[in-house]
């Protein structure tokens, strides 16, 4: 099989498919990425992936190329995992890269081929790609497009690919691809992981709705957090209490700085845009509010920082702990932490950022911020510390030790993960979204 697009999704998928015993070729247009992967180096931080990559390169089940012709000749099943970012100036998904894969690959194919989309796309895309492929395929070539949305979580990518919660397969009418995909996922099927076969449109909508639901859950608790603050209540205790109801569940009820990353924000916007095109825009207007609640948490945190520093951050030294959009990742796409750091910087603060893995990516997006080499260096002399990404290293900080480094014992827990009593006992003033401390 081939895996086209070897970013967070594709590189993980390629290495894990090889780990399951398949022969895999990964394809990307980025020569640097291909060289790094060929050399056994994962171009991003994903726990467990480097070991799997190297093992399968060594066992010759896995290789990488920038040459589509190589993939066209080698494989009959092609996974498509290129990016579908938000289109500039619109909410819609930009399908340039997905279309480019079809335009480049299909004319090179001979015989019967199955292209299996994994990228997150607006409903209707698979059918449009089928028409595109049919127009490009040679007379003796038969290309079928199927969809197999991906649910992996960055930081748990390996586990989620090898042991997913479920496998969703979208097929066109009269398709004969189910058997091929059952072979691809034979080990998961043997583990009784649900294997759900449906039409193309439903499979595309499964992914969009799963992400919309998750985003809504986070914004729900953040909206409640705003009311808690106004009422002098505590959103963390509230979340624990409602989370025991198994219809609600405690996961994704962590109030704080909200969601970011390369998926949820753009996916809910693309979902709204597509619903609008289909004439069902009213159905998803609530996602506008979900988006607005989410973005508001970043502003609320900046406001809280100003209040903590007597109304203005001008010239004050602020340490922002975290740059990645979540812990155990180096992904800074639409990162709430960097958004807060950037806004404070623009408001005149002297901002120092530290992240265990995302410093390189953060520097590329926000070159004007100061990046500390170590956690202690970042904390030294701070007038205010903001915990913006929930890395264990930050959660486990010793309030006494940190107190000896900073200029002022003031901290805002943007993720509601610190032990408030322990910090207050060391003389810290602590603030958090959704709690009156
Ligand atoms: N990252 C995740 O956790 C995750 C989870 C589920 C779904 N997804 C979806 O998967 C898709 C990819 O996301 P990602 O995070 O891996 O993005 P990414 O930006 O990390 O990777 C995309 C890769 O595609 C390559 N590419 C672009 N055009 C190409 C072309 N014409 N031919 C070959 N390669 C090309 C890029 O160079 C890049 O390496 C998106 O639709 C995303 O929504 C991602």
Molecular structure report:
The structure is a single chain. The protein has 2 domains: 2-193, Rossmann fold; 199-437, NAD(P)-binding Rossmann-like Domain (Rossmann fold, 3-Layer(aba) Sandwich), CATH 3.40.50. Helix content is 45%, strand content 14%. It has 19 helices and 14 strands. It has helices at 8-19, 31-38, 49-58, 68-74, 96-105, 125-136, 157-162, 178-184, 186-190, 200-231, 235-243, 264-277, 285-308, 336-346, 359-365, 375-379, 392-395, 399-405, 420-425; strands at residues 2-4, 24-27, 62-65, 77-80, 112-117, 142-147, 167-171, 195-199, 317-321, 350-354, 370-371, 384-387, 410-413, 429-432. Strand 9, helix 14 and strand 10 (350-354) form a beta-alpha-beta unit. Helix 1 crosses helix 3 (49-58), helix 10 (200-231) crosses helix 12 and helix 10 (200-231) runs parallel beside helix 13 (285-308). The longest helix has 32 residues, at 200-231. The model has no long low-confidence stretch (mean pLDDT 98). The structure holds nicotinamide-adenine-dinucleotide (NAD).
Helix- and strand-based class? alpha/beta
Number of β-strand runs:
14
The largest β sheet comes out as: 6 strands, parallel
Rg calculated over all Cα atoms:
23 Å
Binding site for substrate: 151-154, 207, 252-256, 260, 326
InterPro entries: 6-PGluconate_DH-like_C_sf, NAD(P)-bd_dom_sf, UDP-Glc/GDP-Man, UDP-Glc/GDP-Man_DH_C, UDP-Glc/GDP-Man_DH_C_sf, UDP-Glc/GDP-Man_DH_dimer, UDP-Glc/GDP-Man_DH_N, UDPglc_DH_bac
Family: Belongs to the UDP-glucose/GDP-mannose dehydrogenase family.
Active site: 263 (nucleophile)
